[in-house]
Structure formats: C-alpha cells, structure tokens
C-alpha cells in the first residue's frame, strides 16, 4: 500500500479538509487549511494530494495580485460527493422484486437478459459465422468477465459449469427471475454472434458448488449430437 492510499485513519482528516473547503467562501491554500485545522502544512499537503487524485478537490494556480509566484489554491470539486457507501444490491433487490410481480416473471426476465446479451459479448464481423469452438469460447469469455467463473464440463460435452454467481444472495431468493435472466444473457449473446449453438437450459445449483448451462447445436447447423462434429453431407 502506498502513502496515497486511503486508510481508515486518513478518512477523518480528509473529511475535515473537505468540510473546511466547502465552508470557505474563497479558495484555500495549503497553509490556510493547515492553520484552520491545526495541522502541519506537510500533513495538509499529503491529504490534499490524495483528495485531488480521488477527484474530490480541484487544484489551480491563483493569479498573483503583485510580484511573486502565483499561489496554489484548492476548491471542492463541484457535484455530489462520490465517497461513501453504495447500495447496488438493494437496488437490484428492488428491481427483482418488481420484476417478480409480472404475470410471467421468468419470461420477462429472460427477454430482458436477451436484450443485454448482445451488447456484452465481443462482436464478430458480419462477413463470417463462428464455429462451435469459437462461439463457446466467446460465450465463456463473456461469462468470465461477468464474474461467473465458467468452465467446460469434462463429463458432459456441450455443458458449462458456472462455479461462481456474482449475485448469489439474490439468486437464493429470486432464482425464478434471476436465473432466467442469466439464461437470456447467454441466448442473446449467442444470437448476436450468429452462433451455431444455443443455450437450451440453465440448471440453478445443479451441483453443490455450481450451476450448469446446457448448449446444443442450432437446428440449421451441420452439427450432430456428437458435440463439435459435422454431419456427413454426402450420406
């Protein structure tokens, strides 16, 4: 950890500096702030550097009123304070709870996932269609980026184990909507890249430590039930 990293002990001092800047009618220099807070100028400078790096304080040179070097002054960055806690899990719970009241919550969630899946997967040029291996790799890469820790199932060809759920606590309560949403993400992604495979189902908690995604060839592809092999078109 470097000196510019914020620790629990630094937070009160930096908060005091911010409050002093917000209470001032004019920009303040390092010496001004040090005197107001009763701290050494070097201490004030150290915490101001961190606040500037965090985007909470703006620093500029003040035009001199006479001879001498311009003074460096500080003002609070305009806008809402970006420090403090976030409550994204609460927001997700509120939205999932609302979605669960739909007449067909699973279908609505799956459709929402489809709409987003196409935005999340790495695109493929329209001039070509991916094979099974590439489509599976791109799907796996997307799920990795989203935090699902996917891995190919060695016992079941065409299946992917999801070893981590980034929404585990919510999935335990809202699996009827959240899991269809995840399935929709994968379906939308595969549709977007014109994959020769589709996600047919998602088994929540199929194993104690994983959910299972099942893939199969699309109807119009030359794949047979032996995963990844082509039908003999000459027969």
From TrEMBL:
Pfam families per UniProt: HTH_20 (PF12840)
Region (Disordered): 61-83, 215-235
Domain of life of the native organism: Bacteria
InterPro entries xrefs: ArsR-like_HTH, WH-like_DNA-bd_sf, WH_DNA-bd_sf
Basic and acidic residues biased stretches: 221-235
Protein name, entry field: Transcriptional regulator
Organism of provenance: Kribbella voronezhensis
């Amino acid at each position: 950890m470097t000196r510019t990293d914020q620790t629990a002990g630094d937070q009160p001092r930096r908060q005091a500096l911010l409050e002093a800047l917000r209470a001032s009618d004019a920009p303040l220099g390092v010496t001004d702030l040090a005197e107001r807070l009763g701290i050494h100028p070097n201490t004030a400078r150290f915490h101001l550097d961190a606040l500037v790096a965090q985007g909470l304080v703006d620093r500029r040179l003040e035009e001199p009123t006479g001879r001498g070097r311009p003074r460096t002054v500080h003002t609070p960055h305009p806008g809402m304070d970006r420090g403090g806690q976030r409550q994204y899990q609460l927001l997700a719970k509120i939205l999932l709870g609302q979605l669960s009241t739909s007449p067909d919550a699973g279908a609505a969630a799956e459709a929402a996932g489809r709409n987003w899946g196409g935005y999340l997967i790495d695109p493929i040029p329209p001039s070509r269609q991916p094979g099974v291996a590439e489509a599976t790799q791109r799907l796996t890469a997307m799920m990795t980026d989203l935090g699902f820790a996917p891995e190919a199932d060695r016992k079941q060809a065409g299946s992917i184990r999801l070893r981590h759920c980034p929404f585990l606590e919510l999935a335990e309560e809202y699996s009827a909507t959240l899991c269809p949403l995840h399935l929709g993400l994968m379906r939308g992604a595969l549709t977007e890249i014109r994959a020769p495979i589709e996600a047919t189902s998602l088994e929540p908690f199929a194993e104690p430590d994983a959910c299972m995604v099942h893939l199969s060839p699309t109807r119009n592809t030359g794949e047979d039930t032996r995963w990844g092999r082509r039908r003999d078109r000459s027969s």
